[in-house]
Amino acid sequence: MLSPITTRHGDIHKCLWFRSPYPTNRAAEQCYCHPRVTKMLALTVTSTSPALASTGARFKVLAEKFPSFLPKQVDNIKDPLARKLASRIERLPVHVSFSENCIMSSVVKPSIQSKTSPVVLLHGFDSNCLEWRYTYPLLEEAGLETWAVDILGWGFSDLERLPPCNAASKREHLYQLWKSYIKRPMILVGPSLGAAVAIDFAVHHPDAVQNLVLIDASVYTEGTGNLAKLPRIVAYAGVYLLKSIPLRLYVNVLAFNNISLSTSLDWTNVGRLHCLFPWWENATVNFMISGGYNVSAQIDQVKQKTLIIWGEDDQIISNKLAVRLHCELPDAIIHQIPDCGHLPHVERPSSVAKLILEFIRENCKVEAECLSHN
Predict the structure, then answer these.
(1) What is the pLDDT of residues 104-147, one digit of tens each?
(2) Which of these, 103, 127, 129, 297, has the minimum number of CB atoms within 10 Å of its CB?
(3) What are the TM regions of this chain, as residue ranges (predicted)?
(4) What CA–CA distance (Å, rounded) separates 214 from 191?
């Protein structure tokens, strides 16, 4: 029998030797080897386990076929779940008013359809859909119709003919993608700056959003501030630094609890993969000079019921702002995750999946009760 694979965090460990967030018996959750994750997992060439070595057992890597448009450095990523999700990325044509050409937009499409509202996962500032490598398969396994969408200007879309990458164009791009492919009111999930994207979108297109889930939300910063006034040459120098490995490693130290160097290096390769596109610097400078997102005045305009999730040990955005956001949103509930930093969906995927699932189930129950009384 295979030994469980050890990772640095118990919750990520559960993605491999996985504690179900939706067990039959909630009083005593059982650990089991998750069947879908078992298929994803590839043990490299020869196991180092003494028991397996004595029998001469060998396990070969299941070679993922990556989309041709991904940077070739995707081959350097070791994380099996990141590799699996990367193999599912595809580009869909999205027509927008601010570009003569459709934008080939990167997404991970759901493998299942469900009767509940589709879950649409955004990502944080200057990131990509691979942020969801641990939580995405858990949501799908729970039977949720789940999309992971790259925000315009980041991720793996084709922006060779660079469109504007300001807040308004990001909003229209997401709306046109939703209108063309998703087509039903969605549960929009936004971590970090993705929460600002989600709030801005929900206020402007309320019919497209049934509920919001905001994770360690960056919604109180005033856009890009003084960075918007920088001369372009200085802005490009700053953006060049933004994709550097030393800076990204330092951010990992701030974002996660007790991360090992080997894990941090691999997660850095995952997080900066999109930065290797030739258009990335132009798109990021474009966003920076545009002024970015400033949604604090929109918070009390959000009509959708909202789930707030926050890592108690967030060293980037204080959990005091979680309490403030809870007070200012008209209809919200809040859950904080102990021993967790800025990105719970990376650090505590099982907890995040469980909270999202329970939130959806509770809302479905309330809607059913309302219909029964009418």
Answers:
(1) 999 999 999 888 899 999 999 999 999 999 999 999 999 999 99
(2) 297
(3) none
(4) 6
How far is the C-alpha of 189 from the C-alpha of 211, rounded, in Å? 9
Domain ranges for the chain: 65-373
Tens digits of per-residue pLDDT, 224-238? 776 677 777 887 888
What does R_g of the chain's alpha carbons equal in angstroms? 20
| pTM for this predicted structure | 0.81
The vertex-44 CA angle with 83 and 31, nearest 5°, equals 75
In percent, how much of the chain has pLDDT > 90? 66
> What CATH code is assigned to 65-373?
3.40.50.1820
C-alpha count within 13 angstroms, C-beta hemisphere, residue 23: 12
The pLDDT score that the predictor gives to residue 63 is 64
